Design the sequence.
């Protein structure tokens, strides 16, 4: 099998597949390699004739895997909530680090002031 030419769209699809464990908290996937695969194949899903009334309309069909993942409302809401949690955690850490720095500076100033009085 030859290695296909990596387009930006294929690269995004492969990254979504690689990070699929973060999309659904209730599913567990095995360990993934850190690098993108060199050899892979992309296919098209063709629906059968039995599920005529359960098939997706043209508006619901997505052109890529990234579009289908982001188009899912449950996944999008989960990702949004996780993003806000991460942002809040990051801002709390930044605030506490800033607070520690200002307190450390005040302590040093206080020590210098005490030493100057003696």
Sequence:
């Amino acid at each position: 099998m030859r290695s296909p030419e990596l387009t930006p769209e294929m690269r995004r699809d492969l990254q979504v597949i690689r990070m699929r464990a973060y999309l659904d908290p209730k599913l567990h996937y095995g360990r993934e390699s850190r690098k993108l695969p060199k050899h892979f194949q992309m296919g098209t899903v063709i629906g059968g004739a039995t599920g005529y009334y359960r098939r997706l309309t043209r508006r619901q069909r997505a052109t890529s895997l990234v579009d289908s993942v982001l188009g899912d409302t449950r996944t999008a809401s989960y990702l949004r909530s996780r993003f806000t949690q991460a942002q809040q955690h990051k801002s709390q850490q930044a605030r506490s680090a800033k607070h520690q720095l200002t307190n450390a500076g005040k302590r040093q100033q206080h020590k210098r002031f005490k030493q100057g009085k003696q």
Observations:
- Residues 62 and 68 are 5 Å apart (CA to CA).
- The chain has a mean pLDDT of 79.
- The chain has three helices and no strands.
- Residues 1-34+60-71 form one domain.
